[in-house]
Amino acid sequence: MTRLLPPEILNIVFKEIHDEREGRFSNLSSCARVDRTWCTSAIPLLWSDPFETHGSSRECVINIYLAFLNTEELGELRNNGVPIFDLPNHPILNYPSFLKTFNHQMINNAIYSWCECYGVIDDDIILKYVRGAFIKVLCKCDTNLRTLYCSTEFVVEYNLLQSNFHSVIASVNKMYIDLKYIDIKFLSYLSQACQQVNYLEIYFSLFPRTSQDAKIEADSLATLIRYQVQLQRIHIYRCYQYVHLIIDALQHQSGSLREVVFHQVNFQDCGPLHGLATCKYLEHLEIGEGCQNLTEEMCRPLFDASFVDLHVVLYNGINYSTDPFNFFHCKELVEWAEKQCGTNERTIKQHGIPLKCLCTNNVKRPRGIHPHHVLGLRS
């Protein structure tokens, strides 16, 4: 019976199982034991993000990766104090090649756990060698990542400027960046290595920047945006200065950009939003919680632009007001958003949200309304 299902159908079914987080590993592991065909389809999914698991299995994953080093490379690690034990002999499959998600923090945690498992604690030299070995394995096994979660120290910790890691991340299409501190080499490296990103999520530091540093950082991010071949979605969080540099760069993605989200963004001194207004195919614009200092003058290019099918979501933030215009300080933006979206009373009723609570929302999509999308209460 199992042979009646062609591999392409199995891949679809297993992908659905894999996307169901609850029990997905045990379910897929069972599928991999059915026969060779099922194993061939299930194993790549199981190993696409193996560091998301917890416990001892993460140390086993590190051991399997290290098993792809040759004798000379393993000898170099031993000579530098890295404990090499329990490595499997000649792994059957090229497991590192299946890796699709590189989560900097989770992989760091796995390496820390591996070191602790073998009695190495707080030894930066050992960590450096293990990280380097990990990157070397990805490069030699022709790993081709699709999703990259990284923070500023990523390039330095893994010594990426001295490796061939750019080939591993050249096809990344989802990127999440946490800018803990200023590092221009980090952003420059990503701009040169990753130019196929269609989803970009940026978190600025919680710590204050000097004006000069904030400008340099925003300039570097603008370069990253301009270098993308076809950016479709961008989310920006905690940007308090020079957001206009990033917005201006969006005009280079005007033909592909479909979604723009701002949360905790200070638009003070931003100037007119011309870069955003050029994105005529934009479908979703979200001005979220914590955004402030938007003015009519800034928004005027949006009002004058012609969008094909734009839906706008505005948030009122944590402190609701009886006057929905107080939060944004821009009555015209709210009125424009209402006209852009329209209202659909049937959809509103289906989701149990009173019509009087709706000020601005995306109600045209079948997915309906999420309660936190409501802008403010009207009396």
Automatic annotation (TrEMBL):
InterPro entries linked: LRR_dom_sf (IPR032675)
Superkingdom of this protein's organism: Eukaryota
Protein name: 4389_t:CDS:1
